[in-house]
């Protein structure tokens, strides 16, 4: 009989899920017990295109938790900005954050890293990496389901009564600085500064934050702590999610230059190199090579169009965005399948080149003369640093269309752009 057949399968699924939940609860003690599965919430029907045997693999499927996903949830878009530090990701984050229908979070994985591997900010240790990635995927899944309580396990000190004032970069998330989450600003305050939000909004009530998330049509999360797209495969393939990955890349020479300015402690030896013209013997080269390796693996994966990324991956060069923010942002929204709203457009006008408003704040490197800014590293790095970067990052520079320079004159001559025209058509 059809019906009992289905019942048997559902029972089997449920028991697998309960076991998985039990194992997870044992192995990851601080986490809450996941609610019992309910079959109608598993997005089994949905508009899935993946073959059924792909489900439930690699930590993907199974009806283990996430009670907030309904059949409708497949229509919710789960946007992931995959980036690295100083690649212009705050700017891209803002392009999503400004949208009325988007709930945006700025790098929640910060909390995972500081809890799991506190002292190793760029651990290459394979075991650490696996732990970090597994935990990151679990957290991202929960957050896409608007389960913000899940994040509390990682926040130090542990939130009491579901409130905290330690959420990393809370002020970068518009929804967390607005009513009903924060009463300090009214509807007229359209552009609340991050610092003002943190100062004026009281402690963050995670229950209210959760509600704010559920009220938005879409969830966008920016991360800089996952090395490459392949690490996210289980998430991308998860049938309960509707993930769209925007991978942001930037010329590694620009990233290096920007990091030298920003991370004054960790990039101290690079500054010494720049100032003295001599490369310190104990320079941590991995600070540069890791960026290039990660880009290379990601981009190589993305551009070979594996079926699991179909319709779910878009590669964006920061320089293209800086050169033509409005056009590029429209392309991003087209890829996401969302209409771009007026808020986003207004924000671009106010924060990029073309803004005549003297009060426009220079919060983003991209602000104002964004196109020139994207290549300003050329005036800051020395030729031998550039040459060195070109050697270790040769392949990825070529793949992404960044031109190598052969002389100081070429490097400093800003009338020739080092960004070659190159179109990365999203794989649809
Ligand atoms: C699904 O979404 C549609 C439109 O957004 C809504 O009218 C409908 O009630 C939803 N169905 C469920 C089961 O939530
Ligand atoms: C948490 O809430 C309970 C009950 O409302 C209260 O007694 C307790 O003091 C609160 N804890 C903190 C740390 O605010
Ligand atoms: C947080 O918000 C919820 C929902 O409004 C409320 O019930 C709860 O009391 C608030 N928590 C605190 C500690 O104020
Ligand atoms: C800079 O490049 C342009 C275009 O190739 C060239 O015409 C110009 O002479 C160069 N300027 C200098 C100072 O080398």
Automatic annotation (TrEMBL):
Its main location: Golgi. This is Sulfotransferase. It comes from the Eukaryota. It is a single-pass type II membrane protein. GO terms for molecular function: keratan sulfotransferase activity; N-acetylglucosamine 6-O-sulfotransferase activity. It is found in: Golgi apparatus membrane. The gene is chst1. Its EC number is 2.8.2.-. The lineage of its organism: Eukaryota, Metazoa, Chordata, Craniata, Vertebrata. It comes from Pundamilia nyererei. GO terms for cellular component: Golgi membrane.
């Amino acid at each position: 009989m059809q019906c009992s057949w289905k019942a048997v399968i559902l029972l089997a699924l449920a028991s697998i899920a309960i076991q998985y939940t039990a194992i997870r609860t044992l192995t990851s003690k601080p986490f809450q017990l996941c609610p019992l599965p309910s079959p109608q919430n598993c997005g089994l029907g949905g508009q899935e295109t993946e073959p059924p045997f792909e489900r439930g693999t690699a930590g993907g499927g199974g009806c283990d938790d996430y009670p907030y996903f309904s059949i409708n949830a497949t229509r919710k878009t789960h946007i992931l900005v995959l980036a690295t530090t100083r690649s212009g990701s705050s700017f891209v984050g803002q392009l999503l954050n400004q949208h009325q229908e988007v709930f945006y979070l700025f790098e929640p994985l910060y909390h995972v890293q500081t809890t799991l591997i506190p002292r190793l900010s760029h651990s290459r240790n394979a075991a650490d990496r696996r732990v970090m990635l597994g935990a990151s995927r679990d957290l991202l899944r929960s957050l896409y389901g608007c389960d913000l309580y899940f994040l509390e396990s990682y926040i130090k000190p542990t939130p009491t009564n579901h409130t905290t004032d330690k959420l990393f970069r809370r002020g970068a998330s518009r929804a967390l600085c607005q009513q009903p989450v924060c009463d300090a600003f009214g509807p007229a305050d359209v552009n609340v500064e991050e610092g003002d939000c943190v100062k004026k909004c009281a402690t963050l009530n995670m229950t209210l934050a959760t509600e704010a998330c559920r009220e938005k049509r879409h969830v966008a999360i920016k991360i800089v702590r996952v090395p490459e797209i392949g690490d996210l495969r289980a998430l991308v393939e998860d049938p309960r999610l509707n993930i769209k990955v925007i991978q942001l890349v930037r010329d590694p020479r620009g990233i290096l230059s920007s990091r030298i300015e920003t991370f004054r402690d960790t990039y101290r030896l690079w500054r010494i190199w720049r100032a003295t013209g001599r490369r310190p013997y104990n320079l941590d080269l991995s600070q540069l090579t890791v960026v290039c390796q990660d880009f290379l693996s990601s981009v190589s994966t993305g551009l070979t169009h594996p079926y699991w990324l179909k319709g779910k991956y878009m590669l964006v060069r920061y320089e293209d965005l800086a050169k033509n923010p409005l056009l590029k942002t429209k392309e991003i929204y087209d890829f996401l399948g969302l209409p771009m709203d007026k808020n986003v457009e207004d924000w671009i006008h106010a924060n990029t080149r073309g803004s005549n408003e003297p009060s426009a704040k220079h919060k983003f490197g991209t602000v104002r003369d964004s196109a020139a800014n994207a290549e300003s590293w050329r005036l800051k790095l020395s030729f031998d640093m550039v040459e060195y970067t070109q050697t270790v990052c040769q392949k990825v520079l070529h793949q992404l269309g960044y031109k190598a320079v052969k002389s100081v004159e070429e490097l400093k001559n800003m009338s020739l752009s080092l960004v070659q025209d190159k179109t990365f058509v999203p794989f649809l």
